[in-house]
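Appendix C. Worked example: PTN23 phosphatase
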Amino acid sequence: MEAVPRMPMIWLDLKEAGEFAFNAAVKKSAVNVPRDFEGCSTLRKYFGQLHYLQSRIPMGAEQEAAVPIAWTEIFSGKTVTHEDIKYEQACILYNLGALHSMLGAMDKRVSEECAAGAFTYLRDHFPHSYSVDMSHQILNLNINLMLGQAQECLLEKSMLDNRKSFLVARISAQVVDYYKEACRALENSETASLLGKIQKDWKKLVQMKIYYFAAVAHLHMGKQAEEQQKFGERVIYFQSALDKLNEAIKLAKGQPETVQEALRFTMDVIGGKYNSAKKDNDFIYHEAVPALDTLQSVKGAPLVKALPVNPTDPAVTGPDIFAKLVPMAAHEASSLYSEEKAKLLRDVMAKIEAKNEVLDQFMDSMQLDPETVDNLDMYSHIPPVLMEKCAALSVRPDTVKNLVQSMQVLSGVFTDVEASLKEIRDLLEEDEAQERKLQELLGKVPSPQGSPPLPPPPSPGLAEVSKECSKYLELHEKASFTNTELHKAMNLHIGNLRLLSGPLEQVRATLPSPTLTEDDKQVLQNLKRILGKVQEMRDQRTSLEQQLREMIQKDDITTSLVTTDRSEMKKLFEEQLKKYDQIKVYLEQNLAAQENVLKALTDANVKYAAVRKALAEVEHKWNTTVQTLVASYEAYEDLMKKSQEGKDFYTDLEGKAAKLLEKARAACQAAEANRQQILEKELKKQPPPRPTAPKPALQKKLPELDAVGLDAGDLPPPGSLVLPELPEELRSL
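Step 2, the predicted output written as C-alpha cells:
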C-alpha cells in the first residue's frame, strides 16, 4: 500500500473583503494575501493586531467607534455587512483556515492541523450569526473535514514509513471516525440547505472515503493477524476489507481518474491478499474463520489535534502596535478571563461529546430510524415506478397479444424446420440401410463377429447432403436451447405483463401488505414515542449548548477589569463565572437522563423485534414483487427483439432445409436406381439351371413316398427338377 495513489482532498474558498473604513494599505495587505504560507503569516499578524485594537477602542457592535465592515458570503456570493470589529476578525480567521486547507490539498500534503485550529477558535470565540458560511453547523463540518484530512496525511506517512500494522489500522480507523462526523453534518438538512450544490459532491466523496479507509483499516488488521499467525482471523479481515472496498467503488462513480486509479491499485492489493489467505487456509492451515462481529473492533487513534490559535502570541502577531492605548493589565486580565470561559466550555463540551458518542453508537447499533421505523404508509399506494409502467402499458393495449403472436409464429417456423430436418435424416437412414443390405447380399461388406455391420460409404451426392444436414441439425440444436429459454422467459413475464395492463386495483392487490394485531400496533406506538424522547433530548442538548456558547461570546467584562485591582481579579472571575451555573445544571440533568431513556428504548426494541422481523419480511416481499413487475415490463422489448431474431433465423433455416430436402430426395432416388442396376447385373451373371440326378436324400425319400401311395412316376422327371441357387433375400429383391 506504500505506492497507492493519493485520494483528492476538499479545500475551501477564501472570503472576499468589502468596505471597511481602515487604513487602505493595511486593508489591502490583509485581504489580498498570496496563496502560500507567507499569506498565512500575514493573516495571523493582522488577526492579532485586530485583537489588540478591539480590546482598546470601542469598535464592537453598537459601540461608539463602530464602522461598517463588509465581506462576501461564500455560498451565496452576497455581501454581508456588520458594524462590529469582531466580524472582521472572524472573516480573517475563516480565511486563515481556508488558506491552510487549500495548501493542505496540494501534492505535498502538509498537515492541516492549523486549518482545524482556526475553525475551532472561530466556532468557540465568535458569534455564529455573522454569515451562513460561519454558522455553527458549517464550522463543525469544516473542523471534522480538516481533522480527517490531516489524519489522512498522517496515514500516508505511516504507510510510507512501514509502521506496525496495528498502528496503521488504528490511524485509518480514526480517519473513518472523523469522516463519519463530517458525513453526519453533511446529512443534516439545515447544513445541506446552507451548502447548496457542493453538498452532494462533498457527501459523495466523504462517504466513499469512509468505506475506502475502513477497507484500509481491515487490510492492516488482517496483516497483523498474519503476523500473529491467526490465519482464520486473517481471512475474515481481508474479506471485510474487500467488501468495504467494493462499496467504495460503487460510491466512486463520477469521481476523477485519480480516485479510480487509487481504488484499482487497492483492489489489486486487497484482492491478492484475500485470495492468497483463503487458499492457504483452505489447503494448509484449516483454521475456523470467525464472524467479524466476534472480533474486537478497531479503535481509532486520533494523532492529530486542532492547534489552538493564540492572538496574543508576539511570535505570531509581532509587537502590539496599540500597546499605548489601553492598560496592558486590563488586556491581560481579559485574556485570562477568556481562558477561564474557554476552559469552562471545554469541560462542558467534553461531557456532551462523550454522551453524544455513546448515544450515536447506541443508535447505530439499534439501527432505528424514527422516520422509517413505521413504514406502513408505503403499502397504501402503488409506488411511482410501478405506476409509470402501468401508464406506459395502458397506451399500448396490444402488448401481450403482440408478444404471444410473435412467439406462436416462432414456434410454427421452428416446428417446420424440425420436421424437414427429421425427414432428411429419415431418408438418409433408410438409404444407408438399403445400401448396407445390398452390400451384405453381394458379400462386399463383411460384418465383424458379434457386431453390427459397418455402414457402406455413401454416394458423393448423399455425402454432401449428410454433411449439410449435420450442420443444420447442429444449428437447430443450439437454436432450440435458445428458443426454449426464450419461451421460459416469455412464460415468466407474460402473466406480469397482463397484470400491469389490467386494472390498478389488481396491481395493488398483488402487492403484499403487513397484517398487524392491536398489540403489534401498541408496540410500534410505544417505540415511536421513546424515539421521540431521544430526539427531544438531542434537541434540548443542542439548544443548551448553543445558549452556553452565546453567553460566553457575549460575556465581556473589560470595563469591570479596568476598575478592578489585580489582587481582586481571581475573585471577580469566580463571581462572573457563576452566571453559567444554571445552564450547567440543565445540561447535567439532560446528560443524566440519557441512561434512563436508552434503557427504555432497549426494552421497547426487544418487544419490537418480532414486529420488526415481520415488517422486514413483508417489505422484502413487497420490494421483490415491485422489482419483478418492473423487470417484466423492461423485458418486453428484449423478448420482442429476440423473438424477431428467432423468426428471422428459422425462416432462413427453413428455406435452406427445404432445398436440402429436395436434394436429399433426388439423391436417394438416384442411389435407389443405382442399386437396381447393380442387382440386375448380378442376376444376369448367374448360370442357367442344369438337369441334375436326384440327390441321395431324395432317393431315401422314395420308400417313404411308396408308404403314402405315391410312386416314382408321380414325381417330375429328373431333368425337370430345378433347385434354385439364389438366396431368398436376393430373389425377393
